[in-house]
Amino acid sequence: MNIAIAGAGYVGLASAVVLAHVGHQVVCVDVDEAKIEQLKKGPCPIHEPALPELMAENLSRLTFTTDYAVAYSNTDAIFIAVGTPEKADGSANLSYVFAVAEQIAASVTCDCVVIVKSTVPIGTNEKIEQHLKSHLKHDVTIEVVSNPEFLSQGTAIRDMLYGSRIVVGTESESARQVMANIYENLEQPVVFTDRRSAEMIKYASNDFLALKISYINEIANLCEVLGANVEDVARGMGMDPRIGDKFLRAGIGYGGSCFPKDTKALHWLGNFHDHELKTVKAAIEVNENQKLRLIKKARKYYDSFEGLIVAVLGLTFKPGTDDLREAPSLVNIPIMLDSGAKVKAFDPCGVEKFKRKVSGNIIYCDTPEETLKDADICFILTEWPEVLELQPVHFLTMKRPIILDGRNCYDPGGMEGYPLVYDSIGRTVVSYLD
Ligand code: UDX
User: Which whole number is the average pLDDT over 335-364?
Assistant: First the structure.
C-alpha cells in the first residue's frame, strides 16, 4: 500500500520504518527542512536502538519530504504522528494535529483513510473528521481512524514489530479493512473498537502504568519507615498474575514524553467534564514528590548543598535514550546549583540536550569513575549500564562516599563493610561511614 506519515519525530519515524519493513511504500513528511535533509543524508537524527539499521535496510520503500501536498495527494492512508505537547493547564495542545488536518484537506485528491497515531483526548478523532470534511478542496471520501501507539523509547522498534496489541478505533467497515491490510504482516492481536474507546485505551493504559509506579513508590517510602525491603515486596506482589511483575520498580519517579503528559491530560479532561479522576491526581502528586526524594534524603547528611561537590550519575529520564523530557535531573540539578553546589555529571547520551536546558557550575565527565572522584555526595538518577557495572570500591574515591541511589542499582548486601553510606529507595540504609 502507499502510506504517508505526517511527522518525522520519534513515533512517526519508527512507524514509517516498520511499515516500510513489512512491505508498504512509505513517505514520511515533516515541516522541519533540516530534519528531512538529515534523514535523506543520514545519520538518523533520533537516538533509538535498531532504528538506523532498519531504516537503512528499507530505503527502497522509504522517502522523506517537506512537500506535504505531493505526499498526501494520492495515497491509500495518511498517519498523523505529530506531537500533542502539554499546555500550561495540563491539557493537550492539538495545534499540530489540526495544522496537519488542514494540509491533508487541502491536498488529498482521492479517497483515503486518515489514521490518528498522536495521543489525543477522547472525542478528538471526531473533531478531526469534521474539520477535514469541512475543509476538503476535492470531492473525496475521508475516514478518520484512531490507532494509538504504545512504543517505549529504547525499545520502539521491537514494541512495534512484536507489540502486545494493535488498537484500531473505527465504526466503518471499509476503514477497518484498510487497517487490516496495513497491519496484515505484523502478527499481533488487533482490538477493533469505536474511536472514543480507542482514544481512551491509550490514556487509560499509560495512566494505569503511571499509577502502578506511583503506588510502588509510596509503598517504598513506607518500607523505609517500617524496615521492609521494597524489592522483595514488589517481587512477592508481582508473582500474582492479577498484579503482574512489570512497572513495580520503585525509584525516583517516572519521566519521559508520555506518562507525565498523559496523566495530566486525562486528569484535566476529567475535571473539564466535572468528573475528577482522583487516582490519577494522586499518581501525579506522588510522582512530583518522589522526584525530590533524594534531595530530602541529602538533608540527613548535609544541612545545605553550599560548597559541596555533587556527583550525578544519569541525566536522561531512563537509559537507552537521549531524551530529557520530565527527567528527574531537570528538577534535582537546578536545586543543587541554586543552593551553591558544584555538580559533576555523567550521562552517555543526554549531555548535549542537558546543556541546552540547564546552565551553571556543572562539569561533564566521560565516565562514572571520573565523576565520583572527590565528590561529597552522589545522586544516581538513571540506571545506565555504565552505572550498574560500578563496584562499591569505585565510590571510595569520593571525598565522602555517600551514595543516594534513585534507581536501586545495587544490592545493599554488597555494600556491607565498605566505608560508605548507601541510601536507596524503599530499602534499609547501609552505613559504615564514621
Ligand atoms: C511509556 C510507555 O511504556 C509506552 O507504552 C508509551 O507509549 C509511552 O510512554 P516510555 O516513556 O518510553 O514509554 O518509557 P517507560 O519505559 O514506560 O518508562 C517511563 C518512566 O517510568 C521512566 O522514567 C522509567 O524510569 C519509569 N519507570 C518505569 C519506573 O520508575 N518504574 C518502573 O517500574 C517502570
Answer: 97
Nearest to 302 by CA among 221, 378, 202: 378
How many C-alpha atoms does 82 have within 13 Å on its Cβ side?
Answer: 19
CA 187 to chain CA centroid, nearest Å? 25
The CATH superfamily of 2-193 is NAD(P)-binding Rossmann-like Domain (3.40.50.720)
- 424 grid coordinates: 536507596
Q: How far is the CA of 262 from the centre of ligand 1 (A)?
A: 12
Share of the chain above pLDDT 90, in %: 95
Q: How far is the CA of 112 from the centre of ligand 1 (A)?
A: 34
Residue 322 CA to residue 320 CA, distance in Å, equals 7
CATH class held by domain 201-288:
mainly alpha
Phi, psi of 142 (to 5 degrees): -120, 135
- Predicted confidence (pLDDT) per residue in 276-328, tens digit: 999 999 999 999 999 999 999 999 999 999 999 999 999 999 999 999 999 99
The answer to whether 2-193 and 293-431 have equal CATH topology is yes
Tens digits of residue pLDDT in 231-248: 999 999 999 999 999 999
Q: Report pLDDT digits (tens) over 200-235.
A: 999 999 999 999 999 999 999 999 999 999 999 999
Contact at 8 Å (CB) between 119 and 258?
Answer: yes
Choose among 163, 185, 156, 148: nearest CA to 55.
156
Domain spans, the chain: 2-193, 201-288, 293-431
pLDDT tens, position by position, 133-178: 999 999 999 999 999 999 998 899 999 999 999 999 999 999 999 9
Which phi and psi (to 5°) does residue 68 adopt?
Answer: -65, -35
What the block records as the C-alpha cell of 330 is 531537570
- What homologous superfamily does CATH list for 293-431? NAD(P)-binding Rossmann-like Domain (3.40.50.720)
Q: How far apart are CA 239 and CA 350, in angstroms?
A: 35
Between 278-290 and 195-226, two packed helices, what is the crossing angle to 10 degrees? 50
Tell me how far apart the alpha carbons of residues 183 and 79 are, in angstroms, rounded to a whole number. 13
Mutate which of 159, 209, 388 for ligand 1? The one with the most ligand atoms within 8 Å of its CB, which is 209
| Strand blocks (E) in 126-208 | 142-146, 166-169, 190-193
Nearest-atom number in ligand 1 for the CA of 251 is 30
Q: Has residue 46 got a pLDDT over 90?
A: no
Distance CA 394, CA 398 (A): 8
349 is known as an active-site residue:
no
Give the contacts of 69 (CB within 8 A, at least 6 positions apart): 103, 106, 107
